[in-house]
């Protein structure tokens, strides 16, 4: 069975002149003409030259007479048909491509992968058994569970285009230079699929950046990475912007920033405007001091609209009390945890229906 | 009532009008998109259409050495990979759900929104829907005037005292505003106030403007008065958030003070009320379907909603939903 990668199709047709002869778009005289052109006109490029057909490919062509019947010979008709043309989705090729079929069986979401820039062209050039299997074995060796490989490849199919030796070097850098344990690799690679596509130089710069910016020793840097691996490959400009906002705009101390970083590093990946808006509501409207926000930074990860809804609901019940020194204290963690229904019953002590009705009065 | 896991069956019934309660600080476009994406999320979690069968004709020769001369073909039928959800994407996508609002609310306004979904878009195109008189509760705060019009947004333009303002002063200003708008209503309806046409229009009820140009206030009254805040209730048509903000500013000037808006809530549209609206905690498939049924009942009960009698409005069973009204008319 011929593997039907898109570019292979075009070269397969031109390579297999027998198939070309039998298809209804070409007559025997035309193919003979092409051959004549090749021998007589040397400086003009023939179709075979353009398609990259060598004499070795033409050796398989035993037949001289195209019109001789093929009955009685072992001929596989099952894949005859018009050639696969250009498309915008993988759906047109997937029924004819074992590679794509096996990726779907693994759980790779091709509808997501086909939209990534540059990926479809490269993916169609790969053969599952020759190329992709090696990468999958590499990933399982590194500790990625078999059930998660599909999700990982959906998020970052570019792993399949990386050289295996280079990937091995990057793993070596993680284990030897940065000092991660082998069991940590699963966490890093599954939580941050793009990690393996960052070069060692880039990674070195980022390690330096985090250690300088946040005064982290290497063990602390490792702890930070394991808490939220996506932070390390995040755009450094956004991280600097959020650090600036936290220190200068919001007025947290360096030690408070450090504790927030180790507890909830995800805060640094928030949109700067959203982060400041959330802090503004908590500190200026609810009068919650810096100390409490630094202790429970989960509150900065909740949307302002949700904070507002829940606060004003508690306020309508007379339960909006956020000072730990006073009775009936509601912690910031309780304010942002759980769905609306859970919040209403556990924290507010009412029903989901009453919360829903309250939202209609805002 | 029927329980089902079949998404395609539910999709057929997902057509009609929904009454939502829009939360403040969310644009109407975002609300519409949220509803659509929640519907898709819930539909895709149900039992969706399986992949279509794909017929493959494979030759047995693949595994057979070249010496053997028998060539047999095997016909295989497998679920098509091209129709697999991992290849095509989710079965239900937001782009395929049609939505159309009856009227729009501003970013910081909250309150009732009527949204037509799928087939409901056609129902909502009906002009009489747009001309259902809407009731707003506008919260006003005296003492400060801002450039945006909202009490907590923008720069302060003016500060003034407000302790001299009694409730009857507000009522007087509102009454004069209402009277002025009654006169304007005739102009916007395109009739002279003294004419026979005007009299006939007035007999039918509120005089509705012909275009969507100027705002008409049919009723303005004071609800709650606790200085520096007070709440007014307005029955309007063709209103916008900006109109209310500038109206409140004018109100402040008329009261010899300065005013800003604290809240704008739409609490009634025709016979649709807050009790019929879906709060943002309940924007999922089950609640929306329930609400559609309720809204269709309210539409039938509302004599102001007159269908375009030339067109048929068919429900899922194929019956003209305005059949009874058509017979009465």
What does this protein look like?
The complex is a heterodimer of chains A (362) and B (329). Chain A has helices spanning 6-15, 17-22, 28-40, 47-51, 55-58, 91-94, 98-106, 110-113, 119-124, 128-142, 149-155, 164-177, 184-191, 200-214, 218-227, 236-249, 254-263, 272-285, 290-295, 304-317, 332-336, 340-346, 352-359. In chain A, helix 22 (340-346) crosses helix 23 (352-359). In chain A, 57% of the residues lie in helices and 0% in strands. By secondary structure, chain A is mainly α. With 329 residues, chain B is an alpha+beta fold. Chain B has helices at 7-13, 28-45, 85-88, 120-124, 127-130, 167-189, 196-204, 241-254, 285-301, 323-328, and strands at 16-22, 53-59, 73-79, 99-101, 110-117, 134-142, 144-146, 156-159, 216-226, 229-237, 259-269, 272-273. The radius of gyration of chain B is 28 Å and the shape is elongated. Residues 325-329 of chain B have low confidence and may be disordered. The chains are: A mainly alpha (362), B alpha+beta (329). The interface between A and B is medium-sized, with 35 and 34 residues.
Write the layout of secondary structure elements.
The complex is a heterodimer of chains A (362) and B (329).
Chain A lengths: L5 H10 L1 H6 L5 H13 L6 H5 L3 H4 L32 H4 L3 H9 L3 H4 L5 H6 L3 H15 L6 H7 L8 H14 L6 H8 L8 H15 L3 H10 L8 H14 L4 H10 L8 H14 L4 H6 L8 H14 L14 H5 L3 H7 L5 H8 L3
Chain B lengths: L6 H7 L2 E7 L5 H18 L7 E7 L13 E7 L5 H4 L10 E3 L8 E8 L2 H5 L2 H4 L3 E9 L1 E3 L9 E4 L7 H23 L6 H9 L11 E11 L2 E9 L3 H14 L4 E11 L2 E2 L11 H17 L21 H6 L1
Parallel strand pairs in B: 5-11
Antiparallel strand pairs in B: 1-5, 2-3, 4-5, 6-10, 6-11, 7-8, 9-10, 11-12
